[in-house]
Amino acid sequence: ELKVEQNPLFLSMQEGKNYTIYCNYSTTSDRLYWYRQDPGKSLESLFVLLSNGAVKQEGRLMASLDTKARLSTLHITAAVHDLSATYFCAVDISKETSGSRLTFGEGTQLTVNP
Amino acid sequence: NAGVTQTPKFRILKIGQSMTLQCTQDMNHNYMYWYRQDPGMGLKLIYYSVGAGITDKGEVPNGYNVSRSTTEDFPLRLELAAPSQTSVYFCASRGPTRNQPQHFGDGTRLSIL
For residues B53 and B34, what is the distance between their CA atoms, to the nearest angstrom? Predict the structure, then answer.
């Protein structure tokens, strides 16, 4: 059974600081997704990481994937209040023809304080 | 472009009642999914479909049923509602390749009392 663990589950940080969220998973996979969820809202896709060594950046967020270590990171640079949200990683171990079935981590609730 | 539309947004059911959560998408996606999200938790897959007429169980299918008669619609049926089914339900769809993310609806908040 695939297990996806995020670390930390709760993160309170000051504006302007840097931090990293970790996503570990237990079974080989070459596809990992990061989503953002604001309170009471739906999930918004942030990044799709497709292979070992993949790195993607959007604004103050950068995501990377190490398939050998079964680890993805979401790095936050110079945090601002607007980044406050819950961040989920999701791993896809399904076959190409079977429609990606995602297993989600528990989420990291990020609060950025002034 | 509406994307993935779920109805209703909120619903309160009594134990033992039944209901159907509606999901429709206008992106011509073959792949559709139903998830539930319990408070403070990640999403768990209930059922999914790879195209009209084809459905399969996910991680937590017990107490639910689905059908997929058209590409656009993927309703989720709750029979004999139980308090354990109190949750937020999300429908999602995805394009033809695994390189694309799943697109989520706004969710249905369901309470069973």
Answer: 16
